[in-house]
Amino acid sequence: MYRRYVYYESYLTMEKRRKNTKAKTIKKRNKKSENILQDLKYMCVSSNLILDALKRGCEVAQLPNGDLIVTEVKTFSVQYRWDKEAIKLTKLPNS
Known about the structure:
By secondary structure, the protein is α+β, with helices and mostly antiparallel strands. It contains two helices and four strands; from the N terminus they run ααββββ. The model has no long low-confidence stretch (mean pLDDT 77). This is DUF2671 domain-containing protein.
C-alpha cells in the first residue's frame, strides 16, 4: 500500500509539472505573438520577402500580427486590327 501511495504522489507531481510547463509555453507564445515585430528572426525573413515583392512591383501590406499581404497585378497587352472584309476586329499575334 505504501508503494501505491508513493507512485500516486509522484504521478501527481508529474502532472503538476506538465501543467506548469504547458502554462509557461502558452505564456511564451503569447509574448512572441505580441512582440512579433520585435523578433529578429521574423524581421530578417520578412524583410527579404518584402524586398523581393517590391522589386517585382507588388504591393505589400504588413499587419500588426505579423501577417504579410502581397498583391500582384499583371498587365497584358493585346493588339486588335479592324478587318474590313470580315467586318470584325481580329487579334494580332504577339510580336
